[in-house]
## 1
Amino acid sequence: MEFRGSSLLSTDQLSLDAVQSIFHKAKQIKERWDSPQALRIAPGERAPVVAHMFFEASTRTKTSFMLATHRMGLRPLDVGIGTANSQIKGETEADTFLNIQAMGPDLFVVRHGGDGDLAGAIRESQIPVISAGEGIEAHPTQALLDAFTIQENLGSLQGQKILICGDIAHSRVARSNAELLVRMGAEVGLCGPKLFLPESLVGFRIFQDLKEGLAWSHVLMVLRVQHERHQLGSPSAFALDEYRKLYSIDEKHLRFFSAKGIILHPGPVNWGVELDHAVRGDVRVKIFEQVRNGVFVRAALLALILGIGEE
Ligand code: CP
């Protein structure tokens, strides 16, 4: 893939070589993060403007992109969404995007809930767009930072047994991760109640019993129960207490998991639901490593797409 000037909307756009190029760049950036000149655009160069448009809430993704933008000497443009712009007067998401596009930023970072018109405008955009999450479809930068974290901790994705546990059906993180991890040579298992499993289960090992899934896996990827994405009516089938009893990762369950394994969660965590409070301090929990790696992986994408730091 030619990164320069390209959009990144899903992981399946990326060849395995392209993924390793991103990881190589992210590793370089991580090693030089405290060296102030290492990452920044050259003195005298025009600083590209990165427009951040988040039509859905975000803490980690938005802040890590903004932080990387600042540290690299780029110019962040935070397009306020909601009451702070003309969406309050009825302007659509697609029109909002097209109007900001007409102003000519150098790159967009966009999160949205899956609006079809906006997705179409993004696909046709002449200005590159990095997806910061699209509905339940895709979250490519989350999948990249997760794979980067696994590779850093375990050396390679090849042959790793990765259990994705929780509300998989409503998770863009699960979709992007499953696509990427399988291509990188991992075996992926899915664990959760039937209500939370995706329609197509081909290519995955399915575990209804959490203990069996934990005993099988080296990497545990826990997902948030996404109440906001459940159709009205469908959550009636979801019993929180029953879910906690069967699928909440607690100290008892973790006795079945490898002592050398790692535990990931994309955040935000519903502590006390998918992860018990007592496991917060478990050395296998790598949540803050994921968050920190998110800054480096996103900085790498900004650098590659904007051509910063090329010799
Ligand atoms: N993992 C993730 O996308 O977190 P945010 O919603 O806080 O960005």
## 2
Amino acid sequence: VRIVRYGDEAGDRWGIVEDGVVLAASGEPFVDLRPTTEVGSLDEVRLLAPVRPHAVICVGRNYAAHAEEFGNEAPAAPILFHKPVSSIIGPGAPIEYPTLSARVDHEAELAVVVGAPAYRVDRARAAEVIGGYTCGNDVTARDLQKSDPGGQWTRGKGFATFCPLGPWIETDLDPSDLRVTATVDGERRQDGRTSAFIFDVPFLIEYVSAFMRLLPGDVLLTGTPEGVGPLAVGSEVTVEVEGIGQLTNPVIASAEGSHG
Ligand code: MG
């Protein structure tokens, strides 16, 4: 099943995509979501990020080849960090290039969406708490990530609009060997497979849920393959994950003096 969120005059709603058509849905994702009436075709309906998480927890350097491209060793345990939920945007929404950074990178990632409360979950039972998967872009102000004191990544990873997610949640997917790519203005920049993960999805669910209560809708970004590179104002970046679909976002200059 492909679960979407979309906007209409009544506000934000859950929907289900079938054969390129968005159907309105009643109930809650991963509990009792059921399709009802037809809303329109995918190109007519404005999709929003398909999650409303309490937390977005991310894994750094989960592909050895990506760790190496910045001269880092493959980590012995997962490197974890958060992105603020206020950084989430949906498909088609603009990534705002902040004035505080001169180097903003794309990071194509498989995003795991938690489907049930998860605390101290053994890796053998991880599938029971996973609701589905979507595409994520862990947009990063690389210069700030490197220069901020104490190895802090919060500022470099946390700007508003730095967490594109979508276009939908695919609930039926085996995450163990999926192609993950990033394309900028038609140029393929990243091309990896989740089979190259240092820490696979079941291990990450066990590791994270060992200390943190995960709630339905929470997102786990699983790390990016090698080939990260810069975005520019005016460019368009597409993250594609095999078996899910494409997440495309334009890059615009950050609005000066915006307080919205
Ligand atoms: Mg990342």
## 3
Amino acid sequence: MITVQDAESIIQSQVRNYGTEYVSIHHALGRVLAEDLYADRDIPSFNRVAMDGIAIRFAAFQKGLRSFSISATQAAGQPPIDILADEECIEIMTGAALPSSADSVVRYEDLEILNGIATVKVDQLKQAQNVHSQGKDRRAGDVVATKDKIITAAMINIAASVGATKILVKKLPRVVILSTGDELVEVDQQPSPYQIRRSNVYGIRAVLEQLQVQPTLLHIADDEAQIRTELQECLSNYDVIILSGGVSMGKFDHVPAVLEALQVKKQFHKVQQRPGKPFWFGVHDNGVVVFAFPGNPVSTFMCMHRYCLPWLHACLGLKEAEQYAVLNEAITFNPSLTFFMQVELRMNKHGTLLATPIEGNGSGDFANLLLADAFMELPAEQNTFNSGEVFRVLKINKS
Ligand code: AMP
Ligand code: MG
């Protein structure tokens, strides 16, 4: 049995690069950017008027002029219209290009307009006020978004503004998720009194969908021959195989033996942790990576967050910072296993993230998962954990 840390480093030593592909900006949200994006023009690309009002020369105001005759009106998108004398102004709209003959904009709120004359009502103006000058945010050729980041709504916005209609993103691996177990039925079926719905695979898929991975879902019975046939097929059609169930000590837990018979090399079986102790991990020579999680719903869910998701992040070039919180209640846990405890997180008024344990009924109790914000990782070497101690947390239920 290996430690959580060793399991993690073995998995991280199997990081793969699945390459890149172009996608339309319409489908880029949530993917991982694989190229830097550059400004094709200055941002703003001209001296942009930032308020509706009038464009004047600041020097004219400084000389004492307060009333300006409106010589023209300029809307956004029009070529700039020059003012020809200090006494003139252009009525100008937000988003318009400031003419080079003016340098400041006085907003309507600070004006009185009567018979084509705009009078400034305020005593003080600043030069270049309400002007968003050309190139102030970024210069043409500057990087506007750096690669190896998840494409967010804000990034879509900037990509659109620089005309990036096709965006280079990381390719996603082909993933298959298999449930195993004769007691499992499809979610739209009515289980008999001794059956359950195969909910885990849907939970795993939902976790992967956070990274836009669209896995295939399959089911296999606890039948050695069927497991072998299905897995053999999966080994040639997918990059990643995720199994739930069938890896423990039971009479019908055939998965590890079949995987090894199919030349998937075991990297480890069993991790010093609760939940998820029977976790099996292996790789095939053809590059396929196999995560075989115990079927207990909480075990599967925890292992997805602690092992599979960080591995996928690394494959996609994402760097996720570890997160920590303060334990808010004393806990005793005697087995020498790393305990992944379900906690509720709350930020107190001092800005401290507090983790309060949620009472649960072990790894079978997944109804409680919904109440948890995170798993707190309590190290195997310690048995008593005091209120105020800081430990790592794995956030779950992130929208
Ligand atoms: P196993 O790891 O196959 O021994 O399964 C452990 C427990 O998890 C058993 O109670 C199974 O019925 C349950 N289980 C296994 N697979 C699933 C699944 N896909 N969805 C929900 N529960 C499952
Ligand atoms: Mg089973």
